[in-house]
Design a protein that fits this description.
The chain has 393 residues and is α+β, with helices and mostly antiparallel strands. 62% of the residues lie in helices and 10% in strands.
């Protein structure tokens, strides 16, 4: 089996490891050059000769740079531990520049958790050791400048890297939130479509059931009314099929969904109330409609919800009532109120079971309105109050 392809992170890690190895070897070679050349300038009379101890101390100060990204504090402590005896034993003073790489690495890769006091304390310890040993070197001041500059440079690199990482994380989080919002919006839209599909199909099936029964009973006794029932049945079936087709198209997830959505016909609203009542009458339900208050434009969700509530209520009335229903629509100052009342039949408890009342209650709640339904005074009453100013999510 072939090994899996290396990721981009693995590639970066390999490049970093190769660079750090080369840097450690270069620093070690440079340290040895300074050690065996007795410094970079004219030879000092008291400079310690190169020996095995000096080579070992230079190796201790430089070779750990191989792991400077993974263990920057350890690398710095080893370099500091090596430079103190190098200075105390009067090896070439230029070797004090070597730990500057470890100082830079500590600031750049220490994650900001290591304060600048750590290298400052190490440098102070170096100064104290040199004073105790009686070989104070003015190069300590130059070393302080070099170490300080290395720390500042490494700290700036760390801050820049963390800033870029924070921006990338923020962009990823924003994209994740946007995707979550899109998913929530899609779920809410599908829930709305499911309610519309239930209301439309349920109403149509009940109307078709009533009209088919009427056509069968009137076929011989009243052929004219039988034909009217069949025509109503055909009209309801055709309209329902068209509406279901529009709803199913809106649920599609292919690339042309946006174009399809622009062609979807708007769902029915209160403007179709007379047609709804006429269709219910054709099914044998005596419907009276009363509208109170001045009509006013409605938000699409309020218009659609009020129509669906009336439609479902008339469907329940035709199934569970003795054949009459009273519809009342009131345009109030701040809300629209729709109500349907139909007499109950003995032994029946309309509204128990099914999803009709649940759907009406959900529609009303989504718009911030109130809904109640129940039997009172021999009538089953449905009443919904829908604020004008709120729209469905």
């Amino acid at each position: 089996m072939a090994p899996p392809p290396a990721s981009a992170g693995d590639g970066r890690s390999s490049r970093h490891a190769a660079f750090d190895t080369a840097l450690a070897l270069l620093a070690f070679a440079g340290g040895l050059g300074i050690l065996f050349a007795h410094g970079l300038g004219p030879s000092e009379p008291n400079v310690h000769e190169a020996d095995a101890l000096g080579v070992a101390l230079v190796a201790l100060a430089t070779l750990p740079l191989v792991v400077r990204r993974r263990a920057p504090l350890l690398v710095f402590l080893l370099a500091a531990a090596a430079i103190v005896p190098l200075h105390a034993l009067e090896y070439p003073g230029e070797l004090g520049v070597i730990p500057a790489v470890a100082v830079y690495s500590l600031a750049a890769f220490g994650g900001g958790s290591v304060p600048a006091a750590v290298p400052a304390a190490a440098f102070a310890a170096l100064g104290i050791v040199s004073l105790v040993a009686g070989n104070a070197d003015p190069g300590i001041l130059a070393g302080l400048v070099v170490w300080g500059g290395a720390w500042i440079a490494g700290d700036r690199v760390r801050e820049r890297r963390e800033r870029i990482a924070a921006l990338e994380e923020r962009a990823v989080r924003a994209e994740r939130e946007a995707d979550r919002e899109r998913r929530l919006a899609a779920a809410e839209e599908r829930t709305r479509i499911a309610r519309d599909l239930h209301d439309s199909a349920g109403h149509a099936i009940n109307v078709i059931l009533v009209q088919a029964g009427a056509a069968r009973l009137l076929q011989e006794r009243d052929p004219q009314r039988s034909r009217q029932a069949l025509e109503t049945l055909e009209e309801v079936a055709r309209e329902t099929v068209a509406e279901i087709d529009e709803l199913v198209r809106a649920l599609r997830e292919d690339g042309s969904a946006e174009g399809d959505r622009r062609e979807v016909e708007p769902p029915p609203g209160l403007a179709a109330l007379d047609t709804l009542a006429q269709r219910a009458r054709a099914g044998g339900l005596e419907v009276s409609v009363r509208v109170q208050g001045a009509r006013r434009p409605l938000a699409p969700a309020v218009d659609r919800a009020s129509y669906r509530i009336l439609q479902e209520s008339l469907t329940n009335a035709s199934l569970h009532g003795p054949g009459t229903a009273e519809v009342e629509v009131s345009f109030g100052p701040s809300e629209l109120e729709v109500a349907v009342a139909n007499p109950t039949m003995p032994g029946q408890a309309p509204g128990n079971g099914g999803h009709g009342l649940v759907g009406m209650r959900e529609r009303t709640a989504l718009l911030g309105g109130s809904f109640d339904a129940g039997v009172s005074g021999g009538f089953f009453r449905v009443r919904a109050r829908l604020p004008y100013g709120k729209d469905e999510p």
